[in-house]
């Protein structure tokens, strides 16, 4: 009985390793598709102040436009803001905005990301919410991009993962 108790853990480990090797087959690699570019206009920042994690500032979104190959011109409505937090060496952005398309569809956009160092680029991940049948696919988009300061706010370039 003693030899069986020693053999059983070894057998379980061996079978587990074989299962992991069988599951390690490569999957189909995603491709990247350009989604849109946006110029976001912002208003005057509101300093919330220092909290234990850093300094919080709210920057209102007051307008802007976006354009991409799968979308009509989109207008940023003055319903949103960037809730940002700055700590030593880091800038964290959490922006929410509402977009109206030329066909009067509405899309809620949430971008969040981090700037590290001094290159002034914030790397963001983005989620969308819409009830529009035309843009329903955005509810499931895996989107990511860059956000950079401009003279009037931010310039955003967005891509999405696509599986062929």
From TrEMBL:
Keyword Transmembrane in record: yes
Signal sequence interval, chain numbering: 1-22
TM region(s), chain numbering: 48-67
Pfam families for the chain: DUF3237
Top-level lineage group: Eukaryota
InterPro entries (alphabetical): UPF0311
Keywords: Membrane, Signal, Transmembrane, Transmembrane helix
Gene3D superfamilies according to UniProt: 2.40.160.20
Name of the featured protein: Uncharacterized protein
Source organism per UniProt: Schizothecium vesticola
């Amino acid at each position: 009985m003693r030899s069986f108790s020693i053999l059983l853990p070894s057998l379980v480990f061996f079978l587990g390793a074989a299962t992991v090797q069988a599951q390690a087959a490569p999957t189909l690699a995603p491709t990247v598709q350009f989604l849109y570019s946006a110029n976001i206009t912002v208003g005057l920042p509101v300093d919330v102040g220092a909290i234990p994690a850093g300094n919080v500032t709210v920057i209102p979104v007051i307008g802007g436009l976006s354009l991409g190959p799968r979308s009509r011109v989109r207008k940023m409505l003055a319903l949103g803001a960037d809730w940002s937090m700055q700590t030593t060496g880091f800038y964290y952005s959490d922006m929410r905005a509402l977009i109206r398309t030329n066909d009067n569809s509405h899309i809620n956009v949430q971008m969040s990301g981090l700037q590290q160092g001094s290159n002034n680029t914030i790397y963001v991940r983005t989620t969308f919410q819409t009830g529009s049948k035309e843009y329903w696919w955005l509810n499931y988009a895996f989107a990511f991009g860059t956000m950079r300061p401009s003279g009037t706010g931010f310039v955003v370039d967005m891509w999405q993962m696509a599986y062929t």
